[in-house]
Amino acid sequence: MSQLSNSHPSKGFDTRWLYSFWKFSRPHTIIGTSLSVFGLYAIAMALTPAATSPSILPLITAWIACLCGNIYIVGLNQLEDVEIDKINKPHLPIAAGEISRQQARIIVNITGIFALLLAVLGGQWLLATVGISLLLGTGYSLPPIRLKRFPFWAAFCIYTVRGIIVNLGLFLHSLWLLNHGKDLRHFYQLSIPPEIWALTLFILAYTFAIAIFKDIPDIKGDREYHITTFTIHFGAKAVFNLARWVLTGCYLGMVILGWWFLPGVNPIFVAIAHITALIILWGRSLSVDLENQAAIAAYYQFIWKFFFLEYLVFPVACFLA
Fold first, then answer.
1. What tens digit of pLDDT does each residue of 205-252 get?
2. 85-92 CB contacts, 8 Å cutoff, 24+ apart
3. Residue 104: in which H helix or E strand, if any?
4. Which residues form the signal peptide (predicted)?
5. Is residue 11 exposed (0-12), middle (13-18) or buried (19+ Cβ within 10 Å)?
C-alpha cells in the first residue's frame, strides 16, 4: 500500500491525497489541455460570428472528456516508468510511494473509460479527437509497442496529439457545437480556415521542441534503462539549442503569417505578443546551466507556460481582427 494509505485518518488526509493526485495528473498538461479546449472554442466563435452559442453543458462535457483522456495518458506513462522516475522524477507520486501501483491502475482505467464514454456522448469530432489521442498515448507508453523507446516515434506521438489532433479535432468539435450538432458540411463545408492551420503549425513545431527538450533532464535514467532519446544521441547542448531555434521559428513564423496571410487576426497584436514572448524566452535561456538538472527542468516548465499562453493570445488576436 502507499504511504498515504498507511497514514492515520486525519483532517489532512484527503488534502494530501488530492495533492498527490494533482501531481499524478501532471498539472502542466492539465492546464494545457484545458486552455486548448476553451481557446479553440473561442477561436471558432471569433471566426464564425454568425453561429450561435450552445448551452455550456456540451462544452463542459468536452472539457471533462479531454481531462480524463489527459490523466489516462500521463498516468499510464507513470505506471510504466516507475523505476525510471525514481531516478529522473522521484517527486512523482508513484515513484515517491504516495500512490500505489494498484491505485494508479484504478485511476488510469476509470479515466480512460470515462474519456471514451463522454466522447461518445459529445459527438463524432470529440470521439475522434479523444479516441486517437488515447490510442497514440497507449502506444507511446505500453509494452510491447512502447514507442517512447525510439526518438522519432516518441516525438511523433507527442506532437501529433498536441499539434494536430487536438487543434483540428477540437476546432471541428467547436464548430459542431456552435451549429447545435448539425452536419458541418452544410455549415462550414468542413473547411479549416487559415488561422487554424497557422495555429496548428505553430503548436506542432512548438510541441516538437517540447518533445525533444523534455528528455534533457532525464538523460541519466533514460540511459540506465536503455531509452534512446535525441539527448543521448546528440548531447544536451545540441538538443537545447535545436529546441531554442525551433521555438524561434515558431514565433517569427507566426508574426510573418499574421501580418500577410491571416485576415482573421490582428497583425499588430500578433507581432507585439510573439516578439515579446520570443525575447523573454531567449533571455531566460541564456542563464540555463545544462549541468544542473533542476535548472533545465525549470526552463522546461517555463516553456510550457508560453505554450499555454498561445491559447490565450491567439483567441484575443482573432477577436481583435
1. 998 888 888 777 666 666 655 566 666 777 778 888 999 999 999 999
2. 85/221, 86/221, 87/220, 87/221, 87/224, 88/217, 88/218, 88/220, 88/221, 88/222, 89/218, 91/23, 92/23, 92/24
3. helix 101-122
4. none
5. exposed
